[in-house]
Design goal:
alpha/beta, three-stranded mixed beta sheet, binds thymidine-5'-diphosphate, seven-stranded parallel beta sheet, binds nicotinamide-adenine-dinucleotide, single chain, Rossmann fold
Length: 341
């Protein structure tokens, strides 16, 4: 099978490519990525010479870039992915997440290839009790979530109207190696290692369901090979954590690894101004993929967090390069205001 993976130089895409190349030596992967601020070819350094791997630098909004490129399926990871950035400026989210997805849907229609759209639980909005299933209404609260919900609606429309072979996955919060340091878990680890303040939004009681990235990659692979066209599959782990508990756990793990007293690091915790429209709780019902396709998350939270802390401690060069680039300007502007709430 020839797979077109879009956004493969990002966090989940890079983990997915690495997983597929080892689990399916018969597949060929074409990674199409624009390399925005979060795309990083260093994430794939170890496989760039792999005989079953090709890289194309292009924008999913540019249909011409795929002329003459052959593939049987598209797995669409390419997106603007960070909620805080979507609050500052939603335009790139609408462009890539909506227009870009539409462009790929047109390609899938013309070529009659499989289209797997990687979406998010954030399209459902916030839930106080219980969990969202695939039939829950879409109630996005951030511009990011709204752009993803729009793309999901386009996928649905292309299935209904043009009968394309598409599927949607909606996963909860991922963590693991190669996650860009603007997201909570890598941000906490890196700030703790640098003895910098750790910004916790609001009262720290917002809850997220955390899944180890490799489990998400396996779920996508399961849907690609066993899923029913036209269906939506939720993907989650059941591992819910309030942000403040997660931050404390990370600090305990880091202190252990560095041989420090944990309460020294706890002094870095800094409650800051809340995110606008901050979703209180995400929780997802994954029983459909578990019962119908036989997938289940394997890496328990404590184990996944230990692996992730170890990875960031052992791969300082990876994040130090990012922290010295343009990202740090965004970080300083973003947090100067929050820290002085
Ligand atoms: P990321 O920001 O790390 O990676 C996004 C990648 O897409 C980058 O490599 C970037 O260069 C590329 N890209 C952006 N715009 C592009 C364009 N116009 N054309 C081509 N490439 C482009 O994001 P991620 O965390 O790896 O998320 C990947 C996908 O998974 C997204 O669609 C996101 O909505 C979804 N998702 C993420 C999570 C999570 O917790 N991170 C959870 C559920 C779903
Ligand atoms: P994030 O990693 O941005 O993922 P998402 O917003 O997609 O869930 O944030 C996870 C949670 O952590 C969310 O409730 C916001 C919170 N958060 C902080 O408290 N401090 C931070 O510096 C960041 C980036 C997030």
């Amino acid at each position: 099978m020839r797979l077109l993976v879009t956004g493969g130089a990002g966090f989940i895409g890079a983990n997915y490519i690495r997983y597929v190349l080892s689990a399916h030596p018969e597949h060929h992967i074409i990674n199409l990525d624009k390399i925005t601020y979060s795309g990083n070819l260093e994430n794939l350094k170890d496989i760039e010479e792999h005989p079953n791997y090709t890289f194309i630098r292009a924008d999913i909004c540019d249909r011409k870039s795929l002329e003459g490129v052959e593939f049987d399926a598209i797995v669409n990871f390419a997106a603007e992915s960070h909620v805080d950035r979507s609050i500052l400026d939603a335009s790139p989210f609408l462009q890539t997440n909506i227009i870009g997805t539409h462009n790929l849907l047109e390609i899938a229609r013309q070529r009659d290839c499989i289209f797997l759209h990687v979406s998010t639980d954030e399209v459902y909005g916030s839930i106080e009790k219980g969990s969202f299933n695939e039939k829950s209404p879409l109630m996005p609260n951030s511009p990011y979530a709204a752009s993803k919900a729009s793309s999901d609606m386009l996928v649905r429309a292309y299935v209904e109207t043009h009968n394309i072979r598409a599927m949607i996955t909606r996963c909860s919060n991922n963590y693991g190696p190669y996650q860009f340091p603007e997201k909570l878990i890598p941000l906490v680890i890196i700030n703790a290692l640098n003895k910098k303040l750790i910004p916790v939004y609001g009262d720290g009681m917002n809850v997220r369901e955390w899944i180890y990235v490799e489990d998400h990659c396996k779920a996508i692979n399961t849907v690609l090979h066993k899923g029913t066209h036209g269906e939506i599959y939720n993907i989650g782990s059941g591992d819910e954590q309030a942000n403040i508990d997660l931050v404390k756990l990370l600090l305990v793990k880091i202190a252990e690894r560095l041989g420090l007293k944990e309460n020294g690091l706890a002094r870095l915790i800094n409650f800051v101004k809340d995110r606008q429209g901050h979703d209180r709780r995400y929780a997802i019902d994954s029983s459909k993929i578990e019962q119908q396709l036989g997938w289940k998350s394997e890496v328990r939270f404590d184990e996944g967090i230990s692996r992730t802390v170890d990875w960031y401690i052992s791969n300082k060069q990876w994040w130090q390069r990012i922290m010295s680039g343009e990202y740090i300007q965004y970080y300083n502007v973003q947090y100067a205001e929050r820290l002085n709430k």
